[in-house]
């Protein structure tokens, strides 16, 4: 919507309510977007600017004054300037005494300065009450109204009343506020928008590690083996043939790694006999990034599908088909083998079905879809359909191998073919899961999850301040 | 964000506001997540626990006392324990008199007990005011803040003031509350998170039915016919060839079933001459699950595309190509047939375009996308582009058949080829839609939708309490 | 959830709060949905209807009276009828004096009437205070609770207190309100839900223009050239072969057009030496629709992928392969060319990787995903991964051409092959971006973005009302 054609005036609610004035220092992108939103929410907005007479970019309805004058008009001042420009505030110490000074700044890099911007500001202007807020909301989100996870404003500060004032402003703009404590938490809040996909670090590391390891394995067993044993140069196979061995192996392994912590946690609870004992830290961390593991596995599966579908129009494959055709003709064409037709069509079909369910899992991981289903539906898809996907993809890989593992020629340098490596983790997960869903084991797990404990806790020693006793059975 | 490194303290707003204390019985997943959220929103939180001295898992800043002591500190008590453990509350009847007791429980299965948990609780503790709430919000949603459709708390209870208190707490946590009436509605609220995709039941049933029917049809006409007439064993074709006949038939039929109720409703309104007459229940139910019908149809179309793209590297297909190549060579290669090139390329091209629009329809059905467009844009995509997709896919199927329906050999056992079955419903829908968009018919439909009625309603009989008369023309 | 089985009663909060009564004129879809929502939020609802005794469709718990009686019960009246039916309000002028009359209407077409519905209503009922609101919220959104971007109610009106009342109602329903000024803004608010993808106009126009231009180019250079020079009829190639030349050219060009304004803006800032000078309007407009340009480019890339994957089972291609096989056999099969294998596998592989990143870009453009990441993560994906995608697809196209540009036969009628046209814009963008990321240039751009200016602004002339002077360095 074109903002310059709409009149902007604060909703003043008649005789009763006086509009609150908010002052903003700084006329950059963020300052202007914040000012516009505040005007639309009914506040009067005053900008403190270096050049109050050159205010062509400011939203209509807002005033522009010098910094000192602007500071006097309001109780709350948003400081929408970069940290490098904080110095001038030193000259305004008097006007800023007793004001709520909101630090909305971000730094381009983590740990760029020894102390957080908000604490630095607090030292610069000791008379003001500094509150760190709004640094997680971007100017673009303020303009476009696209506030969902960006709807949350993290707040911290030493004075509770000042924080209250800022929380009220946040609520008027349709944002929610989360209190993080005193100003010492400012460093953490300033780091928050600089995080770059923190939950993806471990899955990406695992993926990169697997990529390097499996790629080396297949190159050795394919290109180097062929060069050493026959002298032929097979290296062109790296681009597609070997890539199409590596990607499915990584995908299946990571999908299994996505479901392995769940079964391990269940067995741990069975072993402990209770659900109240903490999991080891590494298991906790693993369980936190299961969704990212699964999505990365889906990405590799998607690449595998595309690399498979391009097989027929590769020059190499066409050359092989022509060679085969010519040899078939000279040999007067071998008989059609029904078994080969059955198992090849089967593993292709299972692969397609597995991928289709995989895509369904991915779609339900989208934030809007996973929030539109209740937790029973979510568990049904992610758990039941998830294990079904793992099963289909594992059987797909087993059928792809068929009886190759029985032939000695498949074992180059006494190492198994690469595809067999990918079957290890999935089979472990599927077998463990099979154990977990047998009725007797399942019953115990359900009871533990409802709060039952194999070894009841020791009695609570009665303290002097608590004359009543808890019955044993609680 | 690592929660254990952040200090948690209630925002107490200075001299004016006293923090409200909320008591939580139960230290499981939900109780701890709820306590943490309440602390972050500014409440003081007291846990009532069986083992108040073993409180290592509780969020920092929360207190842990015995149940009786905790109950005394607060007006509101959240009961975060399973129904099986409600008994101990009997011993606390005195402390619970006059308190608001919030039942947040869920059962693992529908209709597990004769009466709802909340009503059972009410009988157990008659002095307390029981409110059913928060059972639709999961512990994970509270922790991660991922609250969208899970943002809604369903509330019911006999006492309005108690409900008010719980509604306020919900609002402070950034949730919205929906009042469902008295405590008799608790059973329905408890059933809500146990539903498993209720709107998908009918479409999945239709899909399964079509799957069984069409699959049987193609197996009979392909594998069994071949076995009976020629003795050859064609059964390997089930995995891919026959699957790739079944899936497109189901997809096209379900896509047509997605648009059929719309045209039926329009004709019904034309027949009735008004939009104020209720549709039959079966039509209402059908119209409610149109989106799920369409998405299921898209899933089958996606499978059809994958099964088609794998054709060239199937053993069976390569064998056929080699056979064809050899026969072509011996026959000195037949001439290139331009017509065949034209219509095969055309039906493939139309299929691709139809699938692309199909995917676009699916993307706009995602919750976040359908909420980002206004209703005119939504109708444009779902209705105009939707019918265009149906048209493209129908022409794709017709061209695929080409002149096969003219040859007698296509009719095995006097039955039509399977693909012709899939054309019935789509052609009906497209013809009816064509009638509806002719200007004269369209004009009448628009007027009816704006409120015009062919037969005006009877006069309102003037009642004693209403001396004024409504003019006839209203 | 089945609404007819739930009791609906307003939450009256005990002795303190009296339920506000809201009156709704009109019992159509919107009126009934709004009434149901208001009941669930705790309001008492009275419908004003032409036929108060025939109220079978109304939500339970709502009253139905004549228009005049209903108007007397409440301060606020929602007018949920079409503009064509506004006339009857003339008879109710007395009862409507001093009421807040909320106009929620929409028209089927833009500019259907000379003045907005709200202003027309204002003339019809001069004693009432007309507020335009709720026309952007659909009945279906009210029913299903699916309110996200539809959560925003645009409000305008001449009287601030009346607007306050409506804003409060909106908040109770969980909606946010945006004040657009006086009633003169009603026309703009009424146009808002009639917009049909306004940000897509320019990208779709560019796409259509490119489609026409490139399609003509390839048809001339392929079909017409062949017909003129050899007399053969190649026209069947239009459906797939030529389509598969056109789509990738458009896709790559539009992807480059998506990133071109960014580099142009950076160079403009470098030239100006400041970030405070406004961009030209055409550049602003271009930058606003970058996301739509990118998504349209992705759609064409998706079509290109599908058209490529169907190559092997086209009749035309199978005929060519058979021809090639037969000639290979007669020529005793040419030697396997490793270089051809390398570069063809490479360009296919790069194309797949480029498309995979392309899809990732598309997924992160979904509203729910782009709102779940912070701005640093969003910039990383859209900018770094975006330019990587552009690079991969450009190298894919260059490798596809290989050494064709060196052969004279590739230049038909002295014009370059079509694929070379698609390389122009991408190479320009990539070269300019390369310049921008060299450390010396990048440093200057970063400083400009932080507020540094090459030519400091002129001194602020001291005014009589402002005795203090701004220091020069600010």
From TrEMBL, chains A, B, C:
It is a multi-pass membrane protein. Its main location: membrane. GO terms for molecular function: cupric reductase (NADH) activity; ferric-chelate reductase (NADPH) activity; metal ion binding. The keyword Ligase does not apply. One of its GO terms (cellular component) is plasma membrane. Its cofactor is heme b; FAD. This is STEAP family member 4.
């Amino acid at each position: 919507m074109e903002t310059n054609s709409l009149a902007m005036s604060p909703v003043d609610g008649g005789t009763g309510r006086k509009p609150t004035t908010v002052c903003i220092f700084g006329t950059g992108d963020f300052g202007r977007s914040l000012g516009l939103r505040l005007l639309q929410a009914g506040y009067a907005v005053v900008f403190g600017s270096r050049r109050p007479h050159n205010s062509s970019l400011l939203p209509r309805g807002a005033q522009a004054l010098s910094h000192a004058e602007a500071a006097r008009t309001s109780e709350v001042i948003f400081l929408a300037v970069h940290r490098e420009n904080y110095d001038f505030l030193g000259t305004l110490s008097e006007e800023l005494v007793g004001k709520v000074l909101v630090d909305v700044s971000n730094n381009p890099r983590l740990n760029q300065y020894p102390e957080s911007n908000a604490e630095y500001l607090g030292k610069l202007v000791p008379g003001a009450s500094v509150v760190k807020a709004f640094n997680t909301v971007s100017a673009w989100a303020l303009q476009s109204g696209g506030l969902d996870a960006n709807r949350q404003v993290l707040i911290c500060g030493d004075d509770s009343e000042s924080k209250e004032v800022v929380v009220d402003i946040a609520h008027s703009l349709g944002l929610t506020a989360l209190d993080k404590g005193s100003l010492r938490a400012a460093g953490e809040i300033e780091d928050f928008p600089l995080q770059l996909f923190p939950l993806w670090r471990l899955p990406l590391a695992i993926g990169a590690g697997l990529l390097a390891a499996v790629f080396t394995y297949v190159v050795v067993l394919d290109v180097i083996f062929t060069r050493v044993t026959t002298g032929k140069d097979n290296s062109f196979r790296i681009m597609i043939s070997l890539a199409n061995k590596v990607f499915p192996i990584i995908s299946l392994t990571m999908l299994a790694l996505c479901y392995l912590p769940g079964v391990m946690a269940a067995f741990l609870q069975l072993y402990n006999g209770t659900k109240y004992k903490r999991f080891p830290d590494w298991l906790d961390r693993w369980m936190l990034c299961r969704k990212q593991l699964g999505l990365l596995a889906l990405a590799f599966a998607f690449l595998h599908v595309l690399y498979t579908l391009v097989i027929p129009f590769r020059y190499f494959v066409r050359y092989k088909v022509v060679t085969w055709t010519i040899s078939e003709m000279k040999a007067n064409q071998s008989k059609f083998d029904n078994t080969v037709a059955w198992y090849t069509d089967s593993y292709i079909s299972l692969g397609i079905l597995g991928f289709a369910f995989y895509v369904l899992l991915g779609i339900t991981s989208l934030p809007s879809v996973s929030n539109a289903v209740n937790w029973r539906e979510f568990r049904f898809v992610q758990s039941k359909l998830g294990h079904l996907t793992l099963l289909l993809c594992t059987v797909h890989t087993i059928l792809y191998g068929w009886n190759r593992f029985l032939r000695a020629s498949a074992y180059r340098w006494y190492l198994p073919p690469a595809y067999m490596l990918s079957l290890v983790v999935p089979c472990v997960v599927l077998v463990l899961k099979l154990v977990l869903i047998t009725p007797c084991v399942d019953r115990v797990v359900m009871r533990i999850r409802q709060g039952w404990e194999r070894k009841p806790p020791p009695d609570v020693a009665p303290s002097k301040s608590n004359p009543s006793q808890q019955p044993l059975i609680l």
